[in-house]
Amino acid sequence: MRLLQLENSGDFRLTEDYNEHVPPYAILSHTWGKDTEEVTFDDFREGTYTDKTGYRKIQFCGEQAARDGLQYFWIDSCYINKSNHTELSEAINSMFSWYRNAVKCYVYLSDVSTRSDTEESFSRPLWKSEFRHSRWFTRAWTLQELIAPHSVEFFSREGERLGDKRSLEPSLYEITGIPVEVLRGNPLTQFSVEERMLWAAERTAKRKEDEAYCLLGIFDLHMPLIYGEGRENAFIRLEEEIGNRSKGANIYGNIHWMVPRAVNSLFTGRSDLLSRIQKALEIKPIFATAKQRRFVITGLGGQGKSEICLQVASLMRQHLHYRFWGVFWVDVDKPSTAEKNFIAVAKLLGHSIESVPEALQALATTHQSWLLILDNADDPEFNYQTYFPSGTHGAVLMTSRVAECRGYSPDAFEPLGGLEEQDSKELLLKAAGLSPELWLSYDDQAKEVVCLLGSHTLALIQAGAYVSQGHCQLHQYPEVYRQQRTRLLKFRPKQAQSRYCDVYATFEASADILEQSQSESAKDALHLLQILSILDSSVLTLQVFEEAWKNCKKIPQASSVKARDIDEFSQDHVSHLPRFMIPEDDTWDSFRLTQAGSQLESLSLVTRHNLDGYQGWSMHPLTHAWAKDRQDSERQGMAWIAAGCVLGFSGPNTRMWQTQERLLLPHILSYLDIKVNKAFGLAAKSVVTPLLLKCGWALLRMRQDSRLGQLIQDMFLELGQNPRELSEEFLPLYDLQARSLANLGRNKEAVMLLEQVVKIKGIMLAETHPDRLTSQHELARAYVANRQVKEAITLLEYVVKIQGTILVETHPDRLASQHELARAYEANGQVKEAIALLEYVVKIEGITLAETHPERLASQHELARAYLANRQVKEAITLLEYVVKIQGTILVETHPDRLASQHVLARAYVANRQVKEAITLLEYVVKIQGTILVETHPDRLASQHVLARAYVANRQVKEAITLLEYVVKIQGTILVETHPDRLASQHVLARAYVANRQVKEAITLLEYVVKIQEMTLAETHPDRLASQHELARAYEANGQVKEAIALLEYVVKIKRLKLHKGHPSLIISEDVLSYFSHQA
Q1: Burial class (CB in 10 A: 0-12, 13-18, 19+), 1071
Q2: Which residue in 919, 921, 920, 905 sits closest to 860, CA to CA?
């Protein structure tokens, strides 16, 4: 140990290196400045130290030592040769004893001043504040410099004495949290390893290894230094040394370990959450603890909340910096269980008590660090605040199904969801007992099961156990689940069972809480749960209930009812609505509904969502399955009727249904997941028939064409009606069927049926009656689809005329008929008339309808088609890109309207030579249509046709030919040879043949097309002229130049009679003719 001696001349002299008989000395404690400012050992040897800023500290220490009658003093910055590793290691290992053996320790606080701005000396309030926040209290090495010396005196940067360790004792305890017994010199062995670690927890060092090395003296250890090993490794070595010194004693601080069971070996994932919990609960110095450390885990039963607590407790028991003196687990599921556990905790602490409050007081007054785990706080009616010990000491970890319990720790909580997909697959495969080497080969099978079970932790363990016990193979599980869902979700592993043993039991525990309650809100919650179980597990907006309430108020009392149609609701339907909707009230009151939902949410049976100002609820798929399976057949039937009444009264034609179709579609499909014959067995036909028809109209609007067709077929069967022989009594069903047939592309059948509907309504209703006009409108639409364009125009002009006399110009029905008339004009080649009418309709709808309204989008779509037909390609693209963008936000990707707009946009891209964009979009459309439409569907064939045209334009001729040959083949089985679509595909296929040098095949096909068109189309028809033009090109390519010229001369002659001089079609034919003539 080298010392510095102050000589009579005022100079400093470096002494020899003492090994023994060290003279009395003072020692300096300080915080280091910049490396360039501190005086080093080399500076002293070279005599270049007086100009450095750090020299002031040396000068102060020497002068103060002299005043205290001490000739020698020591400072760490300049008395250690740090280039000599052996000397440095010895110095650091000896540092604690050097400070302990010093006569005086002077703490020089460079950031504490006793001067105010006015130069007034010793401004106490000023230095007191600076003293509390001095950097000296945050540095790692200064911990031992405070504890080791018997005499520690504090000085300001001006060198004025502030006090000593004894006089400043209250402030030092408050600032550092170090007990006064330590400050007074009591042996450190009286304090646990954990407590001593705690004193250094918030302190840092420039070199991170020093945060461990600075504790060597605190634990009376010696250890070689390895700078570069990193903080974690340094602490690991320190811990090993402490363990060796303790000779097997418990150095972890876990004196008390009251935990019910070991960690489950299947525990998987949640690493980020575990880190967050440990961080929130970690032991902090007393001065840094302003409130009790807490963390709350909420969520659905069976997701592993308790297992996470076990894992946290185990990890914190093993971790050097997180160890608790005591870990206490209290099951608060029932007050009696909680009381028993709390009394056990108190007795473990040496207290003989008989009540929970006394036990809590025992914990609150235990100044060791402890962790209290409150498990299963699942009763929403119970105030769990009574189980939190008072004060800021200790840490509390709580698990609960009650979402509101997060209020006990607003800044540190986790609403627990399912595992990540990869973790879910790993857990499943572990539970199935499959070797990790085989996991990759089971990945796809595991992914399907994980998706099926919604990544629910307990369900995955049950599924794995079911497989491991040989009941089925992993790939068979999804099919077994669909057939035996209840059995599988009640299956219990024989070993390592959870608290409730199986998935359904853990959910049932939540239902038991509601069933045991006598409150109105609990009864409403159970009723709501039944209704939600019939619908889909996805988000259901509360607005559905409000709209249903509004419309049920319009139903007349039974005494005033005339004979009603089979699709109309009655008071019978009102009576089936859930009680919490209170149809008797004059204004909508959502209180009971919201309370019911809050009860379910509080038990984590539903999850709340906010949707444009309205709340909504969703359910985990397994909770949804349990909620349905727990009901007997009678209760399921009642729930089905009630859910149908809510959906039906909410009105598929309301604005809500138009804007929230994507959310509502799954609920309609789930509701209809019932055999129609079973549905008719649940209640009278007068109740069930309107429910199914309301759903049918919803499916029609949502374009669920196949599902609607099946529903109608089943209804005809159950009602004993012939689909082809119209009955007045069941007119609404036939009306729905006709529209369904049109959407399915069965246009002839739709026309025949609608003509009958219009005829009957013509007899029953006045010509101005809305229902009669609506049926005429639908018949006209069917005429257009069936290419009876003239009949459509005649009928629609009549409808528009009548509506013009009875409806204002903004009325939706009037605009819809004008829209349809424009479509008919376009189909008849009256493109300009179509554009004029559609621009008017779009203008009116732009004023009266929201931009997301389906009818407004439909009119814009149709106007874009008309623009395209009129060669206004850029206008078409601009409008269609807007329509497609809006539809993408409100319609599912399989919706026919969305696909139709994408189809037409692709056609516009082709016309604008944006071929690559067209191909990308059409390939997507064709892919989606391939999943929802049969191969013979006109829309699917039309998209394939246009995609093939785009391939031709992009010189992907082989792809075009392959696709077109397929289209032509399919059309040959469903369309007559004169059908325009069939002829159009043959025409494009012939063009592809020409491009692929299959000229003879092209000529054969085109001669056939031209022959058919000559029999069915006027000589001026554009399609006939286009085919003749293409045939002439094929003749020329085949060397039949004379035939080519003769045919083109005829085409040019007809076009000159039909088209104006500068028409692009005429110019192209004239140019080709000129070229052929020149070549000849």
Answers
A1: exposed
A2: 905
